[in-house]
Write a structure and sequence with these properties.
The complex is a heterodimer. By secondary structure, chain A is an all-alpha fold. In chain A, 74% of the residues lie in helices and 0% in strands. Chain B folds into 2 domains: 227 residues, D-Maltodextrin-Binding Protein, domain 2 (3-Layer(aba) Sandwich); 218 residues, D-Maltodextrin-Binding Protein, domain 2 (3-Layer(aba) Sandwich), CATH 3.40.190. Classes of the chains: A mainly alpha, B alpha/beta.
């Protein structure tokens, strides 16, 4: 009897502690998602009228001749940036800076944080200037010294530019997580491997990487979702151009239709339907990552006492 | 102790010096005070005074605040807002003279870049939802259909009738077309403009043109003798001769200017009889071909012009003489002078301006106008300030006050009498571009105009960047316009 009361009390306490985070999730995540979904079922524009059209917007998306191109752009952008920068380069920078002198390593990592703390418009402007077509623009000026002809990088290599701009920003998050994980590996393991005659590369491959498997998986999953909804720098650098939806990604398309119309005609309803699709894609990706990376194991209590 | 005292004296001295420097800077940066003659609109006009008194007599409040939103986005257009401050001063001194205890306060915003039109309009609609819309809202005339149909703004016919004989008879008649929707007038014109094709006289001189030939170019364009093909040819000559980097510049962001090329090929934008927008097939085919040729055959427009920035790809190259032609607007002249990119003299010496040439022999040269207008929101009525708002609009619709705006920002007159206003006629540029209004077209006052504009922009950008050839681009343009706009578009051969 007493035990039951205690159990109930414990549950009550837990609920009290959970209330703040539940409130935040409800107000800032659940509520906007529901609202977006509901607006997606209307033909809402500047009049803000809730004219219900059922699945009309979704049927329109199926008929939208650019939807397939924009979806494939999005997947290309997300996975290329993820593999080469947000995870790949982040891992490389962490490993390299952890294996060199501590002070130099820290300084180097601080440099990689600069793009993240620079205001986005300033950062984008710097890239725009650097990638211009004139011979005096930074990229052309540097590349001309090795005999490469001047080009307008935004026109000829828009994807390269979009991925570099986003990638250099995206490195910092993974870099911090990976560095922390690498530093928390007990020194004994590294020493033991060295004593056994392992080279640095072998230590990285067979000791360090397996030990930071969870952080790598977490960063991969988190950054995938983050990239999926990001469009700010693409908007600032190419605005989806230079051709017809050349670098337009799903989130940018939704933004363009919902908010940016020179002629003042906005389509909140259609934009919201596009955003809802993005939420669904995000959920599917989360479930796939959850299953494939076996995140459940990560969340379990350790089987042994550490 | 002595040290502390000395330090304090130094601080006070520094403070005084700082205040003096600030005062001097402030004096020079302060906006010019309205000259005495414009204070007299009400004094001079007994009839207007009576009309104003009639409107204001109902008001019991002591202080009435009217909120006004205006936008440049070019900074020289600041009189769009400032004139209201002048008008309120005028009204207040007159009210004081009458012994009234009512005072009028003007508050609001004049938005400039980086705020662009899209953001400005977004802000308005969101503010409206929040019940915080301005009482007077300046916008492009093409929004009137949408604003009126959805009851954001009120019809002004009764007010206009009241002041017709004193003020509104004077509005240039064609401008009323731009503010009429379903038989009612919903706004008061604030300004209009023409979009000239500017050219560099100095480059033409270097190409061997005589002064007479240069001065005759606008006339040759006006008569239709010099066409868009000649424009490409001449631009190519200048580029090939190494005199300029770029032959032709056009705006770098979405806008309505590109439609001039379509109009030059005989395209129509709307059918006033049916109220529908128009898609002229042949004109669009030729327009797309022209843009393609300009970039990829003649090499006179940069393939990335649509993704450029205003300073480095538009104002800069032209004002520095690195481009021969620039498809711009009359207001750009005001912007170049105010920004110090050109002086009045260097503009006169090196820059010429003409209509946009006809597409082919036998067709007309063109320009495009986009009158801006003052509207009164429904929320102004709910707040009980619509009458005062209209009095203020009436006072700023004055030849002297409007000429301040017109001259500083290089926009064109809205009033017939303004054409004879001393300040306006002193401006040789405004006088010289006035003829262009005979060749102008307004953009359609249609709720789906934004879709038309956006699709055209996307396709033209794809053509210039080399993503689409002219034939493929035309097919996509046709499909997109007809599916998106549906019954509101009329397709003509």
């Amino acid at each position: 009897m007493a035990r039951n009361i205690l159990k109930k009390l414990r549950k009550g306490y837990l609920l009290i502690f959970l209330i703040p985070s539940l409130t935040i999730i409800t107000v800032f995540f659940l509520f906007p998602v529901i609202l977006t979904f509901l607006i997606g079922l209307t033909s809402m524009d500047y009049t803000f009228r809730w004219d219900w059209i059922g699945l009309g917007n979704y049927i329109y998306i199926l008929k939208d001749r650019w939807a397939a191109k924009i979806l494939s752009n999005t997947l290309f952008y997300v996975f290329t940036t993820l593999i080469f920068f947000n995870v790949g380069l982040a891992l490389l920078v962490s490993i390299m800076t952890v294996h060199i002198n501590e002070r130099v390593g820290s300084a180097f990592r601080t440099l990689w944080l600069l793009p993240r703390i620079t205001p986005s418009t300033v950062y984008a402007l710097l890239w725009l200037w650097a990638s211009r077509g004139e011979e005096t623009a930074l990229f052309n000026w540097v590349l001309s010294s090795i005999g490469i002809q001047s080009v307008d990088w935004r026109l000829t290599q828009p994807w390269l530019l979009v991925i570099l701009v986003n990638g250099f920003i995206g490195v910092s998050f993974g870099m911090i997580i990976f560095t922390a994980a690498l530093k928390s590996i007990p020194e004994d393991y590294i020493r033991a491997a060295s004593v056994d005659g392992a080279s640095t590369l072998q230590i990285i491959r067979h000791v360090e990487l397996p030990l930071i498997r969870w952080p790598i998986m977490f960063v991969t999953a988190y950054q995938t979702l983050s990239l999926l909804t990001s469009y700010e720098y693409i908007l600032l650098v190419t605005d989806g151009g230079p051709g017809l939806f050349t670098t337009e990604v799903w989130a940018l398309y939704s933004y363009h239709l919902a908010f940016v119309q020179y002629g003042g005609i906005v389509k909140f309803g259609y934009g919201a339907a596009l955003a809802t699709i993005l939420v669904i894609i995000g959920l599917i990706m989360s479930i796939i990552y959850w299953k494939v990376f076996r995140f459940k194991e990560l969340m379990l209590e350790p089987k042994i006492e550490v | 102790m002595r040290k502390g005292g000395q330090a304090r004296v130094t601080y006070i001295a520094l403070l005084i010096i700082g205040l003096l420097i600030g005062g001097v800077i402030g004096y020079f940066l302060a906006p010019p005070k309205a000259p005495p003659e414009i204070q007299d609109i009400l004094d001079e006009n007994e009839q207007l005074k009576q009309q104003v008194a009639q409107l204001l007599e109902k008001i019991g409040q002591q202080e009435i605040t009217v909120t006004i939103w205006t936008i440049g986005p070019d900074p020289p257009s600041e009189y769009r807002y400032k004139n209201f401050e002048i008008a309120a001063d005028m009204l207040n001194s007159w009210l004081a003279m009458m012994g009234s205890n009512v005072t009028i306060k003007v508050t609001g915003e004049f938005y400039v870049r980086p705020v662009e039109w899209g953001e400005y309009k977004n802000n308005f609609y969101l503010a409206y939802q929040a019940g915080e819309a301005p009482d007077i809202y300046l916008t492009g005339h093409e929004d009137i259909g949408f604003l009126a149909a959805n009851e954001y703004i009120i019809p002004l016919d009764d007010y206009i009738d009241m002041f017709w004989d004193e003020v509104y008879y004077d509005i240039i008649p064609t401008l009323w077309d731009a503010v009429t929707y379903k038989g009612q007038i919903w706004a008061i014109p604030q300004d209009t403009e023409a979009r000239p094709m500017y050219f560099r006289k100095d480059v033409l001189r270097q190409l061997g043109w005589t002064e007479d030939q240069i001065n005759a170019l606008p006339q040759k364009i006006q008569s239709g003798e010099f066409t868009l093909d000649d424009l490409l040819q001449l631009a190519k000559e200048a580029v090939d001769a190494g005199l300029v980097d770029r032959g032709i510049l056009h705006r770098v962001k979405e806008g309505y200017d590109y439609f001039q090329f379509y109009l030059a090929y005989g395209g129509k934008l709307w059918n006033p009889e049916t109220g529908k927008m128009v898609f002229s097939q042949e004109a669009w085919q030729k327009t797309l071909q022209w843009f393609y040729d300009a970039v990829w055959t003649y090499g006179v427009i940069h393939p990335n012009q649509f993704s450029g920035d205003w300073d480095n790809d538009f104002h800069g190259p032209f004002t520095q003489g690195d481009a021969l032609f620039l498809s711009g607007g009359t207001w750009h002249k005001g912007e170049w002078i105010q920004k110090g990119l050109l002086t009045e003299d260097s503009f006169k010496e090196n820059i010429g301006f003409a209509l946009h040439p006809a597409g082919e022999p036998g067709l007309q040269p063109v320009t495009l106008s986009h009158p801006l207008v003052y509207t009164i929101t429904k929320q102004a009525v709910e707040r009980g300030v619509a009458d005062v708002a209209f009095v203020l609009i009436t006072l700023v619709t004055d030849p002297h006050l409007n000429s301040y705006h017109a001259v500083q920002s290089a926009h064109l007159a809205i009033l017939n009498s303004q054409i004879y206003d001393a300040r306006y006629t002193e401006d040789w540029f405004l006088k010289d571009v006035a003829y262009m209004l005979e060749y102008t077209t307004f953009i359609p006052n249609h709720p789906k105009w934004g879709d038309y504009s956006r699709i055209v922009f996307n396709i033209l950008r794809a053509v210039e960047s080399g993503d689409l050839g002219p034939t493929e681009a035309y097919q996509i343009l046709y499909d997109e316009i007809t599916t998106t706009i549906g019954d509101d578009i009329e397709v003509v051969p």
